[in-house]
Amino acid sequence: MAKDILPSLAQADAQVPKKKLGGYEFYREVLGSPKYVVAPMVDQSELAWRKFSRRYGAQLIYSPMINAKMFVDSTNKTYRNANFDLINGEEGDPTIDRPLVVQFCANDPEQLLASAKVVEAHCDAVDLNLGCPQDIAKRGRYGSFLQDEWELIYKLINTLHVNLSIPVTAKFRVFPTIEKTVEYAKMLERAGAQILTCHGRLREQRGQNTGVADWDKIRAVKEAVSVPVFANGNILYQADIDACLKATGCDGVMSAEGQLYNPALFAGIGHPIDSPDYDSDEQILIRHPRHADLALEYLDVVMELKTTTSVSGIKGHLFKIMRPGLIRETDLREKLGRVKIDPKKVKECLGAYRVVCEEMKERMDRDAKAAEGVPLKDLITVEPITGIKVMPHWLAQPYFRPSPEQKKAYALANAPLEVAEGESSVAVPVPVSPQKPKRPLDDCEPGEDAKRVRLEQVAV
């Protein structure tokens, strides 16, 4: 009799829905209390990059931003498969791609819910993008250009909160005042967001006007809500991660561009910053491996996956990872830019990229060998405008844009002195207009439309 009952009990137990966790329960029990998070980035946080990043200490990774309006259109199979490939079954696979948060941009609750339902079983949470500051977001009415439509935002988040079996999270930018930023964050929490990621920049802070993220506003958000908060902004080196966590009190740090240029940003992060060997060659190379080696390893990951990686995504990653070398080896930069690959035969054509990376490796190994005997810490220099340290050019490292204020201050401080008329012993600085900054090498590849490439590569 008991044997007859057991199967039915097992079946009944299997049909009982799992408890939907939220807040810190979700953060701890499902995500594993992540502190080091890779941001959602258009065409740059794809499956291959996510798998690659986990090797170097990333504990939680977001998918690229997906447009819910386009994703929900079942006739647009090309867009759906390119943004979340359900056919090959690797995206969201618990063995290689978890924990994972899938991010959408949207302005229609029904479209957002329908899109989220497609990926619901393949991720741990769905995130709403409220931070994208690009013109394309303005035209599409999503991202940070929704931040004045609180009623709509509430409905978008609450619809997912009520109807999904997994949590909803939100990533947003700050307002000019702490008070409005805090009220905004509280509204997102009331709507049902179980984790908040606060990007400490205004909507207007982008491109050459990116400027510095405001950690004080992030801290105010953290202190005002009861759900976990991730801080986003100003992360270039591991020391910045420690400083950010202390300054904001946040549960984790999310990195976008910092991790793109140095995928080992989170590697070996448990090693104490104040330890005597922190600046030893061994420890520096853990945090800043040789960039050509990283580029070749990334190509290996692309090759081993069944899921196709976009051509623009691959090229964007290679330009970013190897940027310190490409600035010097301009012929390799041109060669990398000229590589053309059939999107339908990516793996068959990857050899063309590999040739450039291997050439770069030979030249960087040459330069590293020439510096043998000198500790790496003694080869670190300082960028004069920002005061940020620069690693030897064969190592992976962040790329940073001096703000207009920094450029003006530097130009004024270094202006040539001119003797004032009639005052033979008095010198006054001659104002010098800073030169218009050159377009970053990786933002405009030869033969490609700069605006499109910029939109593809920007972190949102």
From TrEMBL:
<feature type="domain" description="DUS-like FMN-binding">
    <location>
        <begin position="38"/>
        <end position="340"/>
    </location>
</feature>
<feature type="region of interest" description="Disordered">
    <location>
        <begin position="422"/>
        <end position="460"/>
    </location>
</feature>
<dbReference type="GO" id="GO:0017150">
    <property type="term" value="F:tRNA dihydrouridine synthase activity"/>
</dbReference>
<keyword id="KW-0288">FMN</keyword>
<dbReference type="InterPro" id="IPR035587">
    <property type="entry name" value="DUS-like_FMN-bd"/>
</dbReference>
<protein>
    <recommendedName>
        <fullName>tRNA-dihydrouridine(16/17) synthase [NAD(P)(+)]</fullName>
        <ecNumber>1.3.1.88</ecNumber>
    </recommendedName>
</protein>
<keyword id="KW-0520">NAD</keyword>
<keyword id="KW-0285">Flavoprotein</keyword>
<keyword id="KW-0819">tRNA processing</keyword>
<keyword id="KW-0507">mRNA processing</keyword>
<feature type="compositionally biased region" description="Basic and acidic residues">
    <location>
        <begin position="448"/>
        <end position="460"/>
    </location>
</feature>
<keyword id="KW-0521">NADP</keyword>
<dbReference type="GO" id="GO:0006397">
    <property type="term" value="P:mRNA processing"/>
</dbReference>
<dbReference type="GO" id="GO:0050660">
    <property type="term" value="F:flavin adenine dinucleotide binding"/>
</dbReference>
<keyword id="KW-0560">Oxidoreductase</keyword>
<dbReference type="InterPro" id="IPR013785">
    <property type="entry name" value="Aldolase_TIM"/>
</dbReference>
<dbReference type="Pfam" id="PF01207">
    <property type="entry name" value="Dus"/>
</dbReference>
<comment type="similarity">
    <text>Belongs to the Dus family. Dus1 subfamily.</text>
</comment>
<dbReference type="InterPro" id="IPR018517">
    <property type="entry name" value="tRNA_hU_synthase_CS"/>
</dbReference>
